[in-house]
Design a protein that fits this description.
Elements: H1 18-23, E1 28-33, H2 35-40, H3 42-51, E2 54-57, H4 63-66, H5 76-87, E3 91-98, H6 105-114, H7 118-131, E4 137-142, H8 158-163, H9 167-178, E5 183-188, H10 196-214, E6 221-224, E7 227-229, H11 237-249, E8 253-262, H12 270-288, E9 294-299, H13 336-345
Parallel strand pairs: 1-2, 1-9, 2-3, 3-4, 4-5, 5-6, 6-8, 7-8, 8-9
Helix pairs in contact: 7-9, 10-11, 11-12, 12-13
Amino acid sequence: SDLEGAPLDPPPVKLPALADAARTQGRYFGAAVRAEQLRQSAELRGAVLRDCQVLTPEIHLKWNALEWRKGEFNFAPVDDLLDFSQRHGMQVRGHTLLWDQGTPDWARQEMLHHRDWSLMSGHLERVLKRYGERITEWDVINEPIDTQGGAGGLRRNVFHRAFGPSYIERTLEEARALAPRAHLVVNDYGFEYDNPVDQARRKAIVALARRLRASGTPLDGIGVQAHLDLSKGPLAVEGLRDMTRQLVDLGLEITITELDVKEAGFHDAAAARDQKVADETRRYLETMLVFPQVRGVVTWGLSDRHSWLSEPPQRQYADAPPNRGLPYDIDYRPKAMHQALSEALRLNA
């Protein structure tokens, strides 16, 4: 279960560490990882130890990873990640307590047939009693909004279908009771561009946050995933700032939780592709980091070797080369995006 592996060679390049850059502004930098990737790759461990203050378990804390079959639990990968993090002075982000697509089939069936909230309470209690002290920031609910489903801006996910819209309030109340000192977050995507869907989604997340604050529901922050996409046109700089201003005016903090960049095409030389990715990253961070309430930036992976953008269904066609949307390439060489992150994280809010 030890993720340390063999001793590390020093990194070949003297890089400015992203953790150091973030620290200058009182923020953190982190990345999503899997325990088995850390175990298998000395390069990944080296990059993580240099750049990260925070690790997000990409899958290990999702309900279907913890309890694929009812009553059979797999906590080992989370425990391994926590041990590794604590040994190196890092934190783990709690991703995620509730997510429609991360819910095991047996729980989904039970919810829809019995509508028994004790199933939800039992899950929240099991996870937060075990990890609520050691993990201090939680994506309590992942992806609750949907502007095209006719449910008042909420996604008609399994929890909404079983328990109605108040599942959000109930879950946040219980999370606060179980982990009173934790920073509780609602995490979602699709805010970045000037198209009708993203515009509506920006409105919807503000409306949800406003509703929760007005009812006194425990909520400390909003997670913005920031899956950037070069095919979607220029960033909605004003729209993003307007959304963020409204959220921070409600007293909420912001975490950028899943940053990466999906390329629009693969035909240019690597250097040109990397420059486009870096420019988009820089523009996005310059838009968001004017707000001191942004507490941290997490990328969805650290190296292109482990990126969901190179896997189906995100992968653009069967023999597409790896997407180059993370700070390191598949051989753990830092790219222009690493430099863009390093520079943007040092900007004064």
